[in-house]
Known about the structure:
This protein is an alpha/beta fold. It has 3 domains: 3-189, Methylglyoxal synthase-like domain (Rossmann fold), CATH 3.40.50; 216-351, Cytidine Deaminase, domain 2 (3-Layer(aba) Sandwich), CATH 3.40.140.20; 376-496, 3-Layer(aba) Sandwich (Cytidine Deaminase, domain 2). The protein contains 19 helices and 21 strands. The strands form 5 sheets. The protein has a 6-stranded mixed sheet with strand order 8-13-12-11-9-10. The chain has a 6-stranded mixed sheet with strand order 16-21-20-19-17-18, with helices on both faces. Strands 3-2-1-4-5 form a 5-stranded parallel sheet, with helices on both faces. Helix 1 (15-24) crosses helix 2 (33-40), helix 8 (125-135) packs antiparallel against helix 10 and helix 17 (428-439) runs parallel beside helix 18. The N and C termini lie far apart (65 Å). The mean pLDDT is 92.
Amino acid sequence: xxxxxxxxxSDKTGVAEFAKxxxxxxxxxxxxxxxxxxxxAEGIEVTDVSEVTQFPECFGGRVKTMHPKIMGGVLxxxxxxxHEAQAKDLGVESIDLVVVNLYPFEETVAKGIAGDDxxxxxxxxxxxxxxxxxxxxxxxxxxxxxxxxxxVIKEIKQSGDTSPQLxxxxxxxxxxxxxxxxxxxxxxxxxxxxxxxxLTNGTQLRYGENxxxxxxxxxxxxxxxxxxxxxEEKPLSYLNILDADGxxxxxxxxxxxxxxxxxxxxxxxxxxHTDISEAFQRCYDADRLSAFGVIVALNRPxxxxxxxxxxxxxxxxxxxxxxxxxxxxxEMLKKRPKLRALEVDxxxxxxxxxxxxxxxxxxxxxxxxDTKVLTKNDLTVxxxxxxxxxxxxxxxxxxxxVKHAKSNAIxxxxxxxxxxxxxxxxxxxxxxxxxxxxxGDRAKGSVMASDAFFPxxxxxxxxxxxxxxxxxxxxxxxxxxxxxxxxxxxxxxMVTTGFRAFKH
Length: 504
């Protein structure tokens, strides 16, 4: 007796070819509305659901499949004598494969569409069919994702049916999908008061922040993972991923080739150069002492020369993250098997939601990611002297770095290379002192970026003592006049941005 596949999809990509392969494997196709039309257009025989139910699709398509002959065909237990007898008495035929993807509710909301048009994109029959088939996955195969068509066909061709393992996996996927779908609806209808955040693909990490703490990584359900592991002899830890994220976000600030070394979620060195290998060398040289157990990020594909520099200089790097690796670099990575290599799909990364989440006080803090781009036109010169073009370039470069250092953050830079970084301190002057100490003689002629305003002029005085020539800061302190006057007295150029760049 031939098996029956019920196909009713919103996204019709590949559905006709899938149906054809099912027919070739001995299945009969049961379908609805537009899906049936697409399949028939390819010369494939289709039975309309309304022929089985003897009831027309109605209310503008709101009611199609919710009928005992359809739901019963999906839900009754095969091999259960009572269920089998009842199905026979009621004229309920077995439905063995259910293929449904849901109305594009999330996409509709993302387009800014509201009101009745959004309500019409709330699928009712689809989730009901999916959940019913998933509940009965011991007997029924359920597909909610077009990416699974090939897997299902492959198993059917090999053995005539899907395996229990695949049916269980697909059922789990369905419940995750319908839960996320309901969460998205709840979020939209509550205007964001209830979150639609769902976590999936849980992966155990080597450990959390410390070896005695367990750690795990999850993907947000509605984001395709934008990175993958190229080399991982030693599993990633919580801090490896945390630092890799910070490092990658930092180098993404820049259009030109840029490299960064990150330690404990803070940059130790950052450099831009026309050659990515030279950028890496300069960012490492900026603070070799701190670059121990470091995360390296490049915003260009990694050449073999960078890996050679890591090996030849015996740099202890935990992770390297880049948008790709040249073949010679991949070969050379094998010489450092404990160096974890991550590859980022830049297009997917940019397409991700610009929202960050942190667990806090038994709940979740959420905020928009700081993606504000600063340009020359955003700068206001507040001192008597104005910056040169070269100083403006360095000021903008330093601002891109200070955004990614923990507050209170101070960054010294010259020729698009950081010369000193002070961050994570309880006073801004302490951060300035630390940046100056790390810079040493390199501070002379450098510019300075501050992620927030100066509450006092003491940081300006420390900067002047160490040879800083120009400062970029948000402004907005009640002592701005005092701070600007001191900068004028000390011969330091100062510009303000009008907005701060805290990172805690």
